[in-house]
Design brief:
Spore Coat Polysaccharide Biosynthesis Protein SpsA, Chain A; 8-stranded mixed β-sheet; globular
Length: 418
């Protein structure tokens, strides 16, 4: 009986380790292309010609709504070529009044059945379609964002180059408020440089981040928004891939996002992300793999692998913990299990991942003395993804939106010269 069990575990761990290793090599191979930044055409070569509708979906955001609007008012872009819209979605505070006072065009939405950002955006897009004032593209922001002054110029450049959907650089406006905000910031800085940028260079699809992106109006009319799950950005990214479209990248179009302060807030937010991720995987994974195989479509294949990424991360976390237990306690139950890769190989693999990160942060010019402490705690943040992912996948049918509250005010002037 034990021999049969041991054989099953041995075969299973073999398969898991090979899949993890292959996927790791794939992601590492792509990340290398983000190390050397290519010389981009200056934005001065592109006249500001695209007209933008800037849309902010807000639910009880009276503490921060003024700052995002003020940063958008300071864009280095002709005022007649963009308008700021705020969807006050089921608000019970002064969000609408404050937004209007700061120059935004406010639309109040009340719908207790269809709650969440995705529904609010779809409702607002319908309003924009009906307007006589026509826009070339729609840019989406969260209420707690701050936007760099050159954002629209960078988006205008990418649209003029022929791109239809463009994601901007997501930075952090509070990276050192807590170890959680620091870990979030590190994760986003790494993603920007070794996930998003190399995919842009290689002609793959970058990932939408829920904020700081723009979509041509004609694309929305052609394929529809329809992204109303808990991760509407991921849903729309996969929908684009299935319609032979991709997301481009604007590395210099910076949007500062507020990160959760506490582990509890972070846990709830990331669980929501994983609920949406699981939902998207159940609906799009098969279609993307079929498209990748039938049409030899590398974009669809890359998107499908991304949907599978949380499962890979669970396996990495669990096997790493088992190997550490085996190393610390040779008489543990894990000692009897055989692995394709020895403990030393897995430890080197994990070590290189944490060594690789600081080098990327240095390349991104984000390194500081505080980051050193952040990287010491970053492995614990990464390990929390394992139970969060499991919990999120198990509760993927729960569509309740958990709103992240804000506790402080930061302006664009606090972060950069506008």
């Amino acid at each position: 009986m034990f021999s049969l069990f041991d054989s099953i575990v041995y075969l299973t761990t073999q398969i898991i380790q090979v899949l993890i290793f292959m996927a790791g090599c794939y992601y590492f191979g792509i990340s290398v292309f983000g190390w050397i930044k290519r010389k981009e055409d200056p934005i001065s070569n592109y006249e500001p010609v695209k007209k933008f509708a800037l849309v902010i979906a807000a639910h009880n955001e009276e503490l921060v709504i003024a700052h995002i609007i003020d940063s958008l008012q300071k864009q280095n872009y002709p005022k007649e070529l963009y308008d700021i819209f705020v969807v006050a979605d089921n608000c019970t505070d002064n969000t609408a009044q404050i937004a209007s006072a700061h120059g935004a065009i406010v639309y109040n939405r009340v719908n207790q059945k269809e709650k969440g950002k995705g529904f609010a955006l779809e409702w607002m897009f319908g309003k924009l379609y009906e307007m006589e004032n026509k826009y070339d593209a729609i840019s989406i922001f969260d209420a707690d964002n701050l936007v760099s002054s050159n954002f629209l110029m960078e988006m205008n450049k990418q649209l003029c180059k022929g791109h239809k959907v463009v994601q901007g650089y997501i930075d952090s406006k509070n990276p050192f408020d807590s170890w959680i905000t620091c870990s979030y910031s590190i994760a986003f800085w790494l993603a920007n440089r070794i996930f998003q940028l190399p995919r842009y260079y290689l002609g793959l699809s970058c990932g939408l981040c829920g904020t700081g992106f723009c979509v041509e109006m004609e694309v929305l009319k052609q394929i529809g928004w329809g992204a109303t799950c808990l991760t509407e950005d991921l849903e729309f990214t996969m929908k684009l891939a299935l319609n032979d479209m991709k997301v481009a990248w604007a590395h210099n179009a910076v949007v500062y996002d507020e990160k959760p302060l506490t582990l509890k807030q972070s846990w709830n937010q990331r669980k929501r992300w994983m609920q949406g991720h699981a939902d998207c995987a159940s609906r799009f994974l098969g279609a993307l793999f079929r498209k990748a195989i039938k049409e030899q479509d590398l974009i669809a294949f890359d998107c499908a692998l991304y949907l599978f990424q949380p499962i890979r991360f669970i396996f990495i976390g669990l096997i790493t913990v088992m190997l550490w237990i085996q190393l610390a306690y040779p008489t543990s139950p894990f000692f009897s299990l055989k692995y394709i890769f020895p403990v030393e190989v897995w430890n080197i693999f994990v070590f290189l991942q944490f060594f690789y990160g600081p080098l990327v942060i240095i390349a991104e010019k984000k390194f500081s003395s505080k980051i050193i402490l952040g990287f010491l705690l970053y492995p614990f943040y990464c390990l929390t993804w394992v139970p969060i992912t499991i919990e999120g996948f198990l509760s993927k049918n729960n569509k309740e939106w958990d709103h992240t509250s804000h506790t402080r005010e930061i302006t664009i002037n606090d972060l950069e010269e506008a």
